[in-house]
Specification:
Elements: E1 9-14, E2 24-31, E3 36-42, E4 60-66, E5 72-78, E6 82-87, E7 93-98, E8 100-101, E9 107-108, E10 111-115, E11 121-123, E12 131-136, E13 141-146, E14 160-167, E15 188-190, H1 197-210, E16 221-226, E17 232-244, E18 250-265, E19 271-276, E20 280-283, E21 286-289, E22 293-298, E23 304-308, E24 313-318, E25 323-329, E26 338-343, E27 357-360, E28 373-374, E29 380-384, E30 394-399, E31 405-410, E32 419-420, E33 424-426, E34 430-437, E35 448-454, E36 459-465, E37 469-474, E38 478-483, E39 487-492, E40 498-503, E41 505-506, E42 509-510, E43 513-518, E44 524-528, E45 533-537
Parallel strand pairs: 28-33
Antiparallel strand pairs: 1-45, 2-3, 3-4, 4-5, 6-7, 7-10, 8-9, 10-11, 12-13, 13-14, 14-15, 16-17, 17-18, 18-19, 19-22, 20-21, 22-23, 24-25, 25-26, 26-27, 29-30, 30-31, 32-34, 33-34, 34-35, 35-36, 37-38, 38-39, 39-40, 41-42, 43-44, 44-45
Length: about 550
């Protein structure tokens, strides 16, 4: 049995900066009395066109910072966008208004009262309402502007607001649901919704500049890879790919309007394929898919060696050795989308655009078919035997040399239930993969899982959890799994037993991983939702694993 797994330590953080924790700021307010700064922002969705299902995730954040030094005290998650912030004039209390339109009928949100001395938050409204604006009128009165509760009378509801004043002798004593619906029953009037984003971005840039630092927006590191020489590659929002030197300096970056989502290294690590997402946009009379961008980049220089623009959008499927497969994403043209085979190093003119066309693999369903496999010996895809959007009958399939998907075993555990795909890693003729059971209403405890199966379908072990996995990798002895709660779980690859579970954090503030990779030097690289790359190491050997003891103080950033 593997001995106790040691606690990992943060060796360095790449791409960090002030206010990284809150993503794109929507509103920011500074308080001279307390010396604090409150920021509401959004780190973005945890799902992309070709990525795993994002059920239960919210990227909306509320951050509280010290103006002197810009240290983040804590960050709270919000289920809805942050609309307004106001510090209480006397108490250590922050009022937060959140909310949004549900897309069908209702405006939903909260009035949160954040106790600044503890970071605890109370949801004060009896019923959900979108809070558009708020302001303290002395110590006892809070002025609120709320959306109508629904839009049954048409689009005019999006241009209206209810202004109410709520009185409490002691706002610090207000508990959950203490502000009653009848207190907010006031006439509706025209209301123009303000956009506080530009002002918030200017304030953050000014405060960072005054502290001798620079603020720039970084979000969602979707892919990360470590190179044998210690460099780190990453793909993230607004950046197709970037390279970081062992010194911690950024070597190069290739920009992109929306940003990279996948990285696939060539066998000799001299070049890397990057896949830029292209979202569907509303362009009357319908929807328009942007032109896809798949590029091969020289690792040493950042020079784009070739660019491929397949029909529609496609997901990169690494194949081991020199092969790569592109799987089309989007509306199936003839019921069965065709896979495209390519050479990783771009030789002989073979490319993703004109590569060998294989048999159909079935339409790619956004929620059902993501199955990114790390360290594969061959390409793997999920194929459904039923209609495109059905989560039933998903099969783990290997793509043969002629491009034919060959079913190996059912994906679901147990097979009779509906399941969604997730990340995977190949270990010694077996696959460790993540998935989740389809829950039409509320997610049940234990509905997410990691399972190790040999390629003949035999189940070697299974681990159940409450949160879907966002990233997965292995060093052959251990499996490292990040999930949507912000946790990193280390499992014994042989038994599936949990060796350690930690909350991912930077400078004591929790974060969440969208990508991770075991680096050649025996470090663990984690790409976070807030645009940072965290390198973890260990202060002592990990027993039977392939990790090595850090080289000494010079490795610490």
């Amino acid at each position: 049995m593997t001995r106790e797994f040691p606690e990992p330590t943060v060796r360095r953080v790449l791409g960090g900066g002030p206010f990284a924790e809150i993503g794109d700021p929507a509103v920011a307010v500074a308080d001279d009395r307390s010396g604090l700064l409150a920021v509401g922002g959004d780190v973005g969705s945890a799902q992309w066109t070709g990525g795993p299902r994002g059920t239960g995730w919210s990227g909306h954040r509320i951050g509280v910072y010290e103006r002197d030094g810009l240290r983040c005290r804590y960050v709270l998650r919000s289920g809805k966008p942050v609309r307004a912030l106001a510090f209480h004039p006397v108490l250590p209390l922050l009022a937060v208004g959140t909310g949004g339109y549900d897309g069908g009928c209702f405006f939903e949100g909260e009035l949160l009262l954040v106790h600044l001395d503890t970071g605890d938050a109370v949801s004060a409204l009896e019923y959900e309402r979108e809070v558009l604006d708020l302001a303290w009128r002395g110590a006892a009165e809070l002025r609120l502007v709320l959306s109508p509760s629904e839009d049954w009378e048409g689009p005019v509801a999006h241009e209206q607001g209810h202004t109410a004043v709520v009185h409490r002798a002691d706002w610090g004593a207000v508990g959950r649901a203490d502000v009653l619906g009848e207190e907010l029953d006031v006439p509706v009037a025209p209301y123009e919704r303000p956009d506080h984003g530009p002002e918030a971005r200017r304030l953050l840039a000014d405060l960072a500049g005054a502290a001798g630092r620079e603020w720039s927006l970084r979000r969602r590191v979707w892919a990360v890879e470590g190179l044998p020489d210690g460099r780190v590659l990453a793909a993230l929002d607004g950046v197709l790919a970037e390279s970081w030197l062992p010194s911690g300096e950024r070597q190069w970056a290739v920009g992109d309007e929306e940003g990279g989502r996948q990285l696939v290294l060539s066998g000799d690590a001299a070049s890397v394929w990057a896949n830029a997402e292209r979202l569907r946009r509303h362009a009357p009379p319908g929807w328009k898919q942007g032109g896809a961008r798949v590029a091969r980049i020289e690792v040493d220089t950042g020079r784009v060696l070739e660019t491929v623009r397949p029909d529609g959008y496609a997901v990169l499927v690494p194949g081991g050795g020199r092969r790569m497969v592109l799987r089309p994403v989007g509306e199936p043209s003839a019921g069965r989308e065709r896979l495209s085979m390519s050479e990783l190093d771009g030789t002989a003119g073979a490319s993703a655009a004109d590569g060998q066309q294989g048999p159909g693999a079935g339409g790619f369903a956004l929620f059902n078919h993501p199955f990114p496999v790390r360290r594969p010996s061959r390409p793997y895809v999920l194929v459904g035997s039923q209609e495109q959007w059905s989560p039933r009958d998903l099969w783990v399939s290997a793509v043969d040399g002629d491009g034919t998907p060959r079913p190996l075993f059912p994906h679901g555990r147990p097979p009779a239930e509906d399941h969604f795909g997730g990340p995977a890693v190949e270990i010694a003729q077996s696959l460790v993969y993540a998935g989740s059971v389809h829950e039409p209403h509320a997610r049940r405890p234990g509905s997410c899982y990691l399972v190790r199966r040999s390629l003949d379908g035999a189940v070697l072990w299974e681990h159940r959890g409450d949160h879907r996995a966002t990233a997965l990798d292995s060093d052959g002895k251990h499996v490292y799994a990040a999930d949507a709660s912000g946790a990193l779980t280390v499992l014994d690859a042989g038994t599936g037993g949990v060796l350690r579970r930690i909350t991912l954090a930077v400078d004591g503030v929790p974060t969440c991983a969208l990508s991770l990779a075991v680096a050649p030097q025996g470090r663990l690289l984690v790409g976070t939702v807030d645009g940072r790359i965290v390198e973890y190491g260990w202060d002592r050997p990990i027993g039977t694993t392939g990790f090595r003891r850090p080289a000494g103080p010079g490795t610490r950033a």
